[in-house]
Amino acid sequence: GKKGLEDATLSSAMGRAADAASSSDGISQDTVQSVISNLQQSATSTMKGTKETLIALLSHRSGYRDTVLLRLEQVFLDLESQLGQDMSAQEIANLASGEGGSLSLFQPI
Fold this sequence. Notes:
Blueprint: H1 2-22, H2 29-83, H3 89-97
């Protein structure tokens, strides 16, 4: 795929440099600039692909985090309704963090 194309581009650029180096004239400035330009283009396209992959990964991670937080909120709201009293955000946070042990679940009753 994309990696193979980049490898082929790099191989082609290196091959042209090697051909020029083995010729009796040596490496011309144009050949060196061409190789450098090809390497820069390859690096730029790879970097863009890497950034897009990272953005997609972070987006998925954020989506999973939002789903988990919404589910936790639903569970705590259900717990609050089953206990029959309004709970403060601090009380819910204490339950979530396990402060007070499992007995803290029965304190409001």
